[in-house]
Specification:
- The chain is mostly helical.
- The protein is 55% helix and 10% strand.
- The chain is built from six helices and two strands; from the N terminus they run ααααββαα.
- Strands 1-2 form a two-stranded antiparallel ribbon.
- A hairpin with a 5-residue loop joins strand 1 and strand 2.
- The longest helix is centred in the C-terminal third of the chain and has 19 residues.
């Protein structure tokens, strides 16, 4: 993974290390809807580059959050799904999403809009 791997100060530190960055949380949400192929994920996450999407998927796979299945057919078919660990992580993010919805107006008023790459 691109981030730091342990030792962690606390559980939140470990979780943020796994989901750090805008695209990983959005990938978790998309994959919670069911298996996805790369092209569909790209369409569901406007603004993500092919390179970043591939990198984020590899990191989530390395962390045991996402399962990548290659089907033996021509042309090749690859599907991504959440693992049990990924599903539990996604469930843990539900309260955070609810907090964001409750405070979205305030956050939009006080924070400048950011570009998808994180730059202001």
């Amino acid at each position: 993974m691109g981030g730091r791997k342990g030792p962690y100060e606390c559980g939140l530190d470990a979780a943020v290390d796994v989901i750090g960055g805008k695209w990983k949380v959005l990938l978790l949400w998309a994959l919670a809807q069911g298996p996805r192929r790369f092209g569909r994920l790209r369409r569901e996450l406007p603004g993500v580059s092919e390179k970043v999407l591939a990198q984020q998927l590899r990191e989530l796979e390395a962390d045991g959050i996402v399962h990548r299945e290659v089907f033996d057919q021509v042309p090749p078919k690859v599907e991504y799904t959440l693992t049990e660990l990924g599903t539990s992580l996604n469930e843990a993010l539900v309260p955070l999403g609810a907090w964001g919805r409750r405070h979205m107006a305030h956050l939009e008023a006080t924070h400048p809009r950011r570009h998808p790459d994180g730059a202001a």
